[in-house]
Amino acid sequence: MDAIKETHFHFPKQTNFYKGKVRDVYTIDNKYLAMVVTDRISAFDVVLPEPIPYKGQVLNQIAAKFLHDTSDIVPNWVVSVPDPSVTIGRICDPFKVEMVIRGYLAGHAWREYSSGKREVCGVSLPEGLKENDKLPAPIITPTTKASVGHDEDISKEQILERGIVSAEDYAQLEKYTHALYQRGTEIAAKRGLILVDTKYEFGKADGKIYLIDEIHTPDSSRYFYKEGYEERQKINEPQKQLSKEFVRRWLIENGFQGKDGQVVPVMTKEIVNSISDRYIELFEQITGENFVKSDNDSVLSRVEGAINKALTAL
Question: H-helix or E-strand containing 69?
Answer without folding.
Answer: helix 55-69
